[in-house]
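Researcher: Let's run the pair from yesterday's discussion. Sequence first, then tokens, for each.
Model: Starting with the first of the pair.
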Amino acid sequence: MTGRIRPVGLLTLAMATLALGLAACGSSSSSTTTKSSAPASSATSSTTASSGGASSGSSGGSGFKVGLVTDIGGLNDHGFNHLSYTGLLQAESQLGVKGTVLQSTSGADYVPNLTKLAAAGNKLVIAVGFLMAAPLEQVALKYPSTHFAIIDSPGGAAPDTAKNIEGIDFAEQQAGYPAGYLTGLYLKAHSYKTASTVGGQSIPPVNLYIAGFQAGVKAADPSATLLNAYSQNFTDESSCKELALNQINAGSKVVFQVAGACGLGAISAAVQNHDQAIGVDADQSYLSPSYILTSAEKKVDTGVFTAIKDLQAGTFSSNLQENINNGGVGIGKIGPAGAPYASQIDNIIAQMKSGKINPPTTLLVTK
């Protein structure tokens, strides 16, 4: 296996930083967020941009307020919550809007947080995550003059959904497929037999990633064995680590985490066993450069920024579709173990963009 020098110091530092960040999410004190420091509370936090941003709404976006409600993973999930926040910061800096963030610590926070932001007169209220679809529908019906958006859901494009909800939807299978194909090439080259996935819950955005990944593995190495398991949460690192260790003990040489902050435990399991891991949502290669094969990415930050920019310009659609052709999904940095196959992955992505390859949306293996 390539790149077998174990980066103990780097990994220890990275994981310690992650642990501190995740612990901070449980704090009950309020704070002002900045680009360099995510808020450590579940209370209201006014966002500011550290490089001349217009969080006061003093520039072209004066009076244009945007609220954002995180899922329970919080802003320190190193994934889609953090990316959503990054998109809001970008809108503050470039569009002059004023942003407010409310962090959710449980599902019970969704309706109150969404309601608070709607009642505060925000022009757009963004719900981060598929699990907020039903709570958002409830709130949107009560505030028909407020615009809402939701990550990982079709929003108003879905039947019987409030039409003041815009979905910011991603073709996750198109990110999972090249990551899976890279995995299959890696397995085949080293005569390894098994790859695995650790999902948070069996919900569409998770399963689309896994479906694409599994298809990609099999396309590159038809003889590969696939394993899959769900932690049933997106926050508890220990549960994802246990599942990943079980898969590694069963022969998995590459573990794809699709479980948000919980999945950081799956990455840790792979690294400590000198196996390869695949990050999710954001480029997570920094966690362990030698042991992150790649990351399956979706540009949640771009989706959030686009939704804000469009509404500020007077456009509000029922659904923003982010895919590989418009840059909404893709893969991150390819690590040293995958570097020999980078040109093949470029070719796979080109075939996806041309329509020659259409990754499936159903799982090949459920467990």
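Model: Moving on to the second of the pair.
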Amino acid sequence: MTDAAAPPATICIYVGLDLVGDGLMKLPFLRALRRAWPDARITWLAGKGRSAFAHELAPLVRGLIDEVIEDAGIGSRAGELLARPLAGRRFDLVIDTQRRALTTLIVRRIRHGAFVSGAAGFLLSDRRPRVPHAKPKAMIRQMLDLIEVASGLPARPEARLAIDPAAEQEAAALLPSGPTYVGLAPGAGGRRKCWPLENYVALGRRLAAGGRVPVFILGPGEGEWVEACRAVPGALLPLQTAADRGIAVMPMLTIALARRLAAAVANDSGAGHMLAAGDVKLVSLFGPTSPDKFAPMTPVLRVLRAQEFGGEAMAAITVDAVEQALMQLVEKR
């Protein structure tokens, strides 16, 4: 950037690739990025593969990203150091979100005004954090650090995600205004990360007895749980209802549903990150994985770990403890 005080007009963000789960975890970074530079043209560069931001998650990041470049073939081979990536295009600011030194040296070859990277302890970066600086454990916190280093201001993931009006309309039809809805997301990518389904069912029964409506968020791989969840008095399974109506179940529908919940409970899972993207008040359950690395980012978050209850397995977390934490969030203004 020619003027250090001027905000960048063009920004390039380098990543290797974005699977859907990766993209969901990176949403707070995108929201903070747009909050920091509301008028910049932002290019998302996936140098080594596809990006879900160009496909499954594209509707969510409308207004946050202006351009997605996939499978760019940038960042793998030493021979790339002899060329200028992206045919010599120039950006006021380039942010490298990965930490492999060779890749960083290649990405740094993109013409730029300022270059920010955490690789080698920010040794290759034009701007560096204030010392002392400890590398955060959480991937998303590491990414937010890059925004803070580049801007000199705290990263605030406040820019609103775009939601398809059709998804908002469908969410309103599935969860009409009036009742107090509480979300329960019992699934996860690995069953060892799941709090037992019978505990979610027991919690749902307690919610129903207290006049709240339990809303089970079940993914396509959790069909064997549908019957047990539907047996909970008054329970709703909005994603299954949408599918029965022939409506495509996409992440934006889950996020739109999250905005209609008073609070929710989820495991360390993609569903948890989707609920967090809807800014819901969330109880996040952890056991074999680390919340320091993987906890979702939402304005009101309560983490419960199995280790707090004397165990490593998710079953160590008691229904009473989850209910108490959840009710505190439901009643919190």
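Researcher: Give me one sentence on the second I can quote.
Model: The CA atoms of residues 266 and 272 lie 5 Å apart.
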